[in-house]
């Protein structure tokens, strides 16, 4: 599968695709659930703040202009889908992006939306 991801997505050849090259139904379902988590603009704002630095709920709530309760609720959802992780540091709990995949996803989507459209 990685060969198909690394190849040019616009490459046109006339070879039929093998069934194992196509995403399985199970993985497609997991991907749909993953991306449906991002259907909330507040979650994107939280991810954007965490892309800049790790933060406590209190600081994150101030940064995104939401209540701590609302941020905690969104963080639970993001944590369940493995977008964010947390560490206890003394008496503080600090949240950050789960890994470089989530950072790259955030960065790539943001850059994609900032690009001018190729076609009218």
TrEMBL record:
Region of interest: Disordered: 1-23
Family matches, as PROSITE patterns: HTH_ARSR_2
Alphabetic keyword roster: DNA-binding, Transcription, Transcription regulation
One Pfam short name: HTH_5
Keyword Amino-acid biosynthesis attached: no
Membrane spanning residue stretches: none
Domain of life of the native organism: Bacteria
Domain HTH arsR-type: 23-117
InterPro entries, alphabetized: ArsR-like_HTH, HTH_ArsR_DNA-bd_dom, Metal_resp_trans_reg, WH-like_DNA-bd_sf, WH_DNA-bd_sf
PANTHER family associated with the record: ARSENICAL RESISTANCE OPERON REPRESSOR ARSR-RELATED (PTHR43132), HTH-TYPE TRANSCRIPTIONAL REPRESSOR CZRA (PTHR43132:SF6)
Protein's UniProt name: ArsR family transcriptional regulator
Gene responsible for this protein: smtB
């Amino acid at each position: 599968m990685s060969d198909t991801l690394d190849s040019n997505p616009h490459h046109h050849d006339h070879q039929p695709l093998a069934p194992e090259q196509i995403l399985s139904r199970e993985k497609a379902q997991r991907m749909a659930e993953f991306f449906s988590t991002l259907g909330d603009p507040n979650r994107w704002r939280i991810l954007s703040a965490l892309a800049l630095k790790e933060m406590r709920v209190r600081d994150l709530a101030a940064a995104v202009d939401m209540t701590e309760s609302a941020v905690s609720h969104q963080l639970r959802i993001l944590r369940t889908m493995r977008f964010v992780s947390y560490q206890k540091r003394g008496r503080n709990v600090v949240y950050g992006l789960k890994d470089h995949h989530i950072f790259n996803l955030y960065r790539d989507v943001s850059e994609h939306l900032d690009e001018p459209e190729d076609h009218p």
